[in-house]
């Protein structure tokens, strides 16, 4: 409010004004974003040494306006992802190690284990972290699940630009459902890996090369059990879909 030079009446109505007034929104965004960029350096320093690829971004002006003012109808500074980052790790144990590092170095406001999110293909541990006065969104996921999510998103929700690039027509509903189910089965095949490293206290011993690596050589019995679990999940999913229709 001080940096914007607002009068008392405007200051009292700031939450409402910043949603409706694009000129005021732009000015306020630039003020707030200066603070966001300062926290960005601190977060990068704290999380950038985690295993895998670390990526961080501050939310661009236009997408911030669209999300806050046009979709959610809330002041943009109440969004939880003005600063967002993620670690994409090569293995499930490395993913657990990155989570342990985040919980050790940055204040955790909320944690949501979405690593078996078969409906949305999210397959990540999702954090809301606090750096200074800023809530920071942090995702941790394994490389294989990151690839699956990207592929399924483009095939199921692809826009015209993507379709033109690969000269493809929009997928019919039945084919979209098939893509989603294939991704779901792949997710279930990594289920035990996730459970071992996240339901048992983030154990990451052995230098990150334990027996639960995704893609390990499975015995026929282990593979059969994983396929059985995947088929069971599929049967429940299909039954739910039938009731929905």
Describe the protein in words.
With 245 residues, this protein is α+β, with helices and mostly antiparallel strands. 55% of the residues lie in helices and 16% in strands. The chain has helices spanning 8-12, 14-20, 22-47, 61-72, 92-105, 143-157, 160-165, 173-189, 191-198, 220-244; strands at residues 53-58, 83-89, 107-114, 124-131, 134-142. Strand 4 (124-131) and strand 5 (134-142) form a beta hairpin. Helix 6 (143-157) packs antiparallel against helix 8 (173-189) and helix 8 (173-189) packs antiparallel against helix 10. The radius of gyration is 21 Å and the shape is globular.
Element layout with pairings:
Layout: H1 8-12, H2 14-20, H3 22-47, E1 53-58, H4 61-72, E2 83-89, H5 92-105, E3 107-114, E4 124-131, E5 134-142, H6 143-157, H7 160-165, H8 173-189, H9 191-198, H10 220-244
Gist?
The chain has 245 residues and is an alpha+beta fold. Helix content is 55%, strand content 16%. The longest helix is centred in the first third of the chain and has 26 residues, at 22-47.
Which tags fit this structure?
245 residues, 10 helices, 5-stranded mixed sheet
Characterize the biggest β-sheet.
Answer: 5 strands, mixed
**Biggest β-sheet: strands ordered side by side in the sheet:** 1-2-5-4-3
Q: Averaging pLDDT over every residue, what do you get?
A: 76
Given the C-alpha coordinates, what overall shape results? globular
Tally of strands:
5
């Amino acid at each position: 409010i001080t940096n914007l030079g607002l009068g008392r009446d405007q200051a009292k109505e700031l939450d409402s004004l910043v949603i409706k007034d694009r000129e005021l929104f732009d000015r306020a965004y630039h003020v707030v974003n200066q603070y966001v960029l300062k926290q960005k350096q601190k977060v990068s320093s704290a999380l950038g040494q985690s295993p895998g690829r670390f990526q961080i971004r501050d939310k661009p002006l236009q997408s911030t306006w669209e999300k806050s003012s046009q979709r959610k109808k809330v002041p943009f500074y109440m969004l939880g992802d003005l600063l967002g980052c993620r670690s994409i790790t090569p293995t499930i144990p490395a993913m657990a190690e990155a989570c342990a590092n985040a919980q050790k170095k940055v204040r955790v406001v909320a944690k949501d284990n979405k690593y078996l999110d078969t409906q949305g293909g999210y397959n990540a541990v999702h954090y809301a972290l606090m750096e200074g006065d800023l809530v920071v969104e942090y995702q941790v996921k394994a490389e294989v699940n990151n690839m699956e999510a990207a592929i399924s998103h483009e095939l199921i929700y692809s826009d015209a630009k993507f379709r033109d690039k690969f000269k493809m027509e929009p997928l019919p509903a039945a084919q979209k459902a098939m893509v989603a189910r294939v991704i779901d089965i792949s997710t279930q095949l990594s289920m035990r890996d996730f459970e071992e490293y996240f339901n048992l206290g983030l154990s990451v011993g052995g230098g990150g090369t334990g027996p639960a690596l995704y893609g390990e050589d499975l015995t026929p019995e282990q593979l059969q059990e994983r396929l059985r679990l995947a088929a069971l999940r599929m049967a429940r999913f299909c039954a739910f879909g039938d009731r929905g229709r």
